[in-house]
Amino acid sequence: MNVVIIGASGYSGAELASLVAKHPTLSLTGCYVSAHSLDKHKLLSELYPEHLGLLDLPLQPLNEHALADITHSADYVCLCTDHKVSVDLAPQFLALGKKVFDLSGGYRLASNDDYLTYYGFEHQHPELLNEAAYGLAEWNSEAIAKAQLVAVAGCYPTAALNALKPLQQAGLLSDERIIINAVSGVTGAGRKASIGTHFCEVSLAPYGLFNHRHGPEIQQHLGHKVLFTPHLGNFPRGILETIYVQLKPGVTSEQVAKAYQVLADEPLIRLLGSKIPSIKGVAKQPYVDIAWQQQGSQLIVMAAIDNLLKGAAGQALQCINLSMGLPHTTGLVGAFK
Ligand SMILES: NC(=O)C1=CN([C@@H]2O[C@H](COP(=O)(O)OP(=O)(O)OC[C@H]3O[C@@H](n4cnc5c(N)ncnc54)[C@H](OP(=O)(O)O)[C@@H]3O)[C@@H](O)[C@H]2O)C=CC1
Ligand SMILES: CC(=O)N[C@@H](CCC(=O)OP(=O)(O)O)C(=O)O
């Protein structure tokens, strides 16, 4: 299958380009940036010298000529672009008969109103919101395999949902709001320069209190109320979430452990039991690490991922694998040794 990547010069796009280039059955046939990008015509490996020899492909401007080329050169189009750009581009590629994997949040929420509230724009293609399959690979594999449009799950939601869905599915959660505190590395904010995400300016601070767009995303796909607070930390990549859960009265540690068994055979999920997960354990790895400790009806769940892999490009590749009927792990496990 031929894959093109739109937004290939960004952090998630470049990560995905490297995965596709190394994948046994995919060909990377084009890497694109915006029509007036400062990086157009540069080689991707000039921006990411670690991929010299692997990604010596030019970054092509996404113009009319490029759209005509993509018509012939791609089976799968991956959008590694800002939410609004993805909302505009996805229907164009769907109309060309392409299968679209969107790494942005442009098609993850069901309600048009939520786009206005949490994304700050009115969705221009609300008719597609119901058609998009939510790309949370372990939990929605059948829909992902069939869909023409896959809305790859958000980074923070990927960690939170994998940590909480087992408990929800087993009926162990009380009605109390679940508190999710999360810390992300700076690559989570993308490659574009800004003072707020300048590496030397970042220490450790919360942001997006009460209004981060991943709150409604987690809530919608969990079916439970949450209070989600992200923090930005001074490390390059990785997300760590500490999640406070009130269990129903009388829920035992055996019941909790049994609930997590639903993920025991998932090759990209590592259940750590009561051991403490860390950013170090997942950085540059395709896994979600999940752990928990319980006292009475209070449960603290911890989840760690690499935001650019399981939180973006890794999970996008997982979704592509599912579309091709391949194992989740093809091109992922063993790729980072
Ligand atoms: N970083 C992360 O950890 C995660 C990111 N995501 C999502 O993935 C998407 C990309 O994020 P990230 O990689 O961080 O972003 P970056 O800012 O690092 O990259 C954005 C890319 O899009 C390109 N671009 C911008 N405008 C256009 C356009 N109109 N047409 C084509 N290409 C364009 C940029 O190049 P140029 O401006 O030079 O044209 C660049 O290549 C976002 O929606 C983000 O929310 C999802 C999960 C995790
Ligand atoms: C540290 C940081 O800024 N992180 C980003 C989330 C990563 C991302 O790009 O979000 P999606 O998964 O929705 O695409 C943010 O909070 O906006």
Description:
The protein has 337 residues and is α/β, with parallel strands linked by helices. It has 2 domains: 2-131, Rossmann fold; 155-307, Dihydrodipicolinate Reductase, domain 2 (2-Layer Sandwich). Helices cover 31% and strands 23% of the residues. The protein has helices spanning 11-22, 44-47, 64-73, 83-95, 112-119, 141-146, 155-169, 214-222, 253-260, 279-282, 309-323, and strands at 2-6, 27-33, 59-61, 76-79, 99-102, 133-135, 149-152, 178-184, 204-206, 226-233, 239-246, 269-273, 288-295, 298-305. The strands form 2 sheets. The chain has a 7-stranded parallel sheet with strand order 3-2-1-4-5-7-6, sandwiched between helices. It has a 7-stranded mixed sheet with strand order 9-10-8-11-14-13-12. The protein starts with a strand and ends in a 14-residue tail after the last helix. Bound molecules: NADPH dihydro-nicotinamide-adenine-dinucleotide phosphate and N-acetyl-L-glutamyl 5-phosphate. N-acetyl-L-glutamyl 5-phosphate (X2W) is lined by residues 104-105, 154-155, 184, 188-189, 230, 232. N-acetyl-L-glutamyl 5-phosphate is lined by residues 104-105, 154-155, 184, 188-189, 230, 232.
